[in-house]
């Protein structure tokens, strides 16, 4: 991809200019390259990797070694986009672990790291940012807490949750996060957070008022027909198209249809 390299400052400046930020996930070389060629400015090697690539039931199974492997593959695409990577479950429990594991992801090619939490992880965020690695926050529904929470629930529906989200977003911004993902936050609360914090909010299932939107790319492309998705309507039925092409090719090989 040609053009100026996207940096954390580019992403922050987009909010200042009122430009919406389109972010997507990628887990390997071809997907990163394709998203980059399509001009997406922020690409995330998410730990959704666990479900959409590795076949785990949730993100709590993803390891540092798996994240490093996929970050390396994505980084080989040398995207113009800013390449961020998720810190996996329990990789940032202490400040020392957070810095060491953020450095491992940076060494694998991540240009920023993301972790889930607010006031509970501000020490880790400060230390990661002080070590020179840009930090992307993640508030609202936190997939790494899905087992404790018993599912993926919308956040901000009551006053204590609303106030906690506001305090967490402000704490992340003060600690040096360059942006924050808001997952499954009610649209009204997401709008308020977007106005309240100086850093971009990037929503997923959080309504239209965030500074940007992020999706898990296989969800957008309809590659995972086995899951019931509430927050995204696939723009392509890639799963069905793949099945159809493969069936036709197989019949061709078996001599039942003319070869393409
Ligand atoms: O893991 C992931 O893909 C994410 C996005 C949904 C933001 O955290």
Feature tags:
260 residues, 8 strands, binds 3-methyl-2-oxobutanoic acid, alpha/beta, eight-stranded parallel β-barrel, 11 helices, single chain, globular, TIM Barrel
Detailed description of the structure:
There is one protein chain. The mean pLDDT is 96. This protein has 260 residues and is α/β, with parallel strands linked by helices. The protein binds 3-methyl-2-oxobutanoic acid. 3-methyl-2-oxobutanoic acid (KIV) binds next to loops.
Task: Kindly report how far apart the N and C termini lie.
Answer: 31 Å
Estimate the mean pLDDT confidence. Answer: 96
The amount of beta strand, in percent, is 5-15%
Domain unit count: 1
Number of strands: 8
CATH topology: TIM Barrel
- Helix content range of the residues, please? 40-55%
DSSP helical segment count: 11
- Global Rg: 19 Å
- How would you name the CATH homologous superfamily? Phosphoenolpyruvate-binding domains
Structural class designation: alpha/beta
Bound molecules: 3-methyl-2-oxobutanoic acid
Question: For this structure, what is the CATH class?
Answer: Alpha Beta
Shape: globular
Give a quick account of the main beta sheet: strands, pairing sense, barrel closure. 8 strands, parallel, barrel
- Quickly give the CATH architecture: Alpha-Beta Barrel
- In the sheet with the most strands, the strands line up as 1-2-3-4-5-6-7-8
